[in-house]
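hey
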């Protein structure tokens, strides 16, 4: 679970910075971070211009798949609230970027982006922390 959520967090961090977390230290574009984004477009007659490159959109899509898997594992291991919230945000993000990537294949004018990378990173961290009852179980087992 922790490895899956670590991969999720790394991919979310890469995508939400549009890879500037790597390129900025190497002298590329300055570092920027999109910690939350909501946008909806439904226009006719004008061509759709994507806010995200195909690489960033694919990275988000893969990150949300790893998030869905990791948060499902977390909810089965006792982190029910954290897991369910993470699953919901992963599904919403996956749908958002599926619509965004559909512009590559189908010409339409709809765009719906709802993402909260900062929330996803915090939830992944919480899901990876040891649970209080698990620590007490380990202490009791060690003292016996």
């Amino acid at each position: 679970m922790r490895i899956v959520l670590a991969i999720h967090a790394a991919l979310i961090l890469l995508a939400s910075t549009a890879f500037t977390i790597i390129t900025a230290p190497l002298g590329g574009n300055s570092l920027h971070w999109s910690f939350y984004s909501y946008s909806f477009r439904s226009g006719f007659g004008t061509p759709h211009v994507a806010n995200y490159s195909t690489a960033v959109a694919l990275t988000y899509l893969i990150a949300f798949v790893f998030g869905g898997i990791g948060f499902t594992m977390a909810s089965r291991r006792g982190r029910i609230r954290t897991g369910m919230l993470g699953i919901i945000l992963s599904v919403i993000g996956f749908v958002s970027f599926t619509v965004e990537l559909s512009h590559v294949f189908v010409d339409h004018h709809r765009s719906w982006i709802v993402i909260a990378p900062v929330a996803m990173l915090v939830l992944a961290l919480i899901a990876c922390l040891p649970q209080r009852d698990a620590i007490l179980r380990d202490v009791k087992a060690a003292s016996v």
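Residues 2-143 form one domain. The chain has one domain: 2-143.
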